[in-house]
Amino acid sequence: MQRIIIVGSGGAGKSTLARQLGELLGIPVTHLDTIFWQPNWQPISREALIAAQEHIVAQPCWIVDGNYSATLDLRLHAADTVIFLDMPRWLCLWRIGWRRVQYHGRSRPDMRAGCNEQLSWEFVRFVWDYPKSRRPAILARLATAHHLRRIILHSPAEVARFLAELSAPRPADEADKMRYNADGLFFEEKKFMSRTVVSTDQAAPAIGPYSQAIMTDSMVYCSGQIPLTPAGELVTGDVSAQTEQVFANIQALLAAAGSSLEKVVKVTVFLHDMNDFAAMNAVYGKYFTSNPPARSTVQVARLPRDAKVEIEVTALR
After folding, report:
1. How far is 272 from 256, CA to CA, in rounded Å?
2. Cα(first)–Cα(last) distance of the chain, in Å?
3. What is the pLDDT of residue 139?
4. What is the CATH number of domain 196-316?
5. Does residue 315 surpass a pLDDT of 50?
6. Which residue from 310, 312, 307 is spatially nearest to 236, judged by alpha carbons?
7. φ, ψ of residue 12 in degrees (nearest 5)
8. What is the arithmetic mean of pLDDT over 236-241?
9. Which of these CATH numbers, 3.90.1720.10, 3.90.1150.10, 3.40.50.300, 3.40.525.10, describes 3-192?
10. pLDDT at position 190, please?
């Protein structure tokens, strides 16, 4: 790890982790907020922000923390590691409130002098909305950045273990075995396996005591999808129309979890009438045109809301 990006919600701990990594690895740290905000909270232009980042990422090693999604691709292209602090909403809200008290009348260490700490309702709303408004897009961008080592940390305890793992002495033959899985996501045996509820208003809502999907560090498990619109209305018509809506729901769920149909490994199709198999299969084939996943298809006596088809998928992240 020589060129590291740290992203996450306000209050997630990006700047603190950047400083800790900088001290641990001996790599210079840049807080993007200190570049963007001039004294008295005056922003610089987008062009100036891009120019400053181009200069930083041209260096052989660096740590940059901050979101600034409009210029994130510039950093992703140059980085070798991205760390996403996927912290709970309540923790981020508590932290931004506490630092407003802690740094009352002065600037934080990760801000430029003359930018005394402040807290606006706009920023509170940004942090509150982050899990739905920003997080899915971040996960989607990381899912396509295959050249990066992607590390997702979900709690302060995971951050602490991650730093401890980095600082722990290791035999030479284990120097590069930092307990990463195939996608580069950090884990430590079973202690780093996470369980996160996936929720999106772009897919059919759950109509019972279950989640739309659950994701772990490496997998996405989608609940069976019936042809409900995001508004909860059943699509009427033949099995072809219903299958199209089912796949629209599946695609939205996978995108929210940072995955896609290309990463699906197993599909189970439930049909009310096996005579509908050919029509369902014709639509199904449009979504899996090459290297299709494993699949099972079964006929059942009845489906929720008397739908003609239900499909559940399991995918890699």
Report:
1. 29
2. 22
3. 86
4. 3.30.1330.40
5. yes
6. 307
7. -75, -20
8. 95
9. 3.40.50.300
10. 36
Query: Measured between alpha carbons, how far is 298 from 317 in angstroms, rounded to an integer?
Result: 26
pLDDT over 50 (residue 187): no
Q: Is the pTM of this model over 0.85?
A: no
Give the torsion sign (CA, 230, 236, 239, 241): negative
Stretch 251-255: mean pLDDT, rounded?
93
Residue 170: the pLDDT is 52
Instruction: Domain ranges for the chain, please list them.
Output: 3-192, 196-316
Q: Beginning with the edge strand found earlier in the chain, give each strand of the sheet holding 213-215 in spatial order.
A: 196-198, 213-215, 219-222, 309-316, 264-271, 294-299
pLDDT of residue 93: 92
Average pLDDT over all residues of the chain: 86
Asked if 205 contacts 230 with a C-beta cutoff of 8 angstroms, the reply is yes
CA distance 165 to 169: 8
- Tell me the pLDDT band of 199, cut-offs 50, 70 and 90: confident
pLDDT in tens, 139-164: 888 877 777 788 889 999 998 988 88
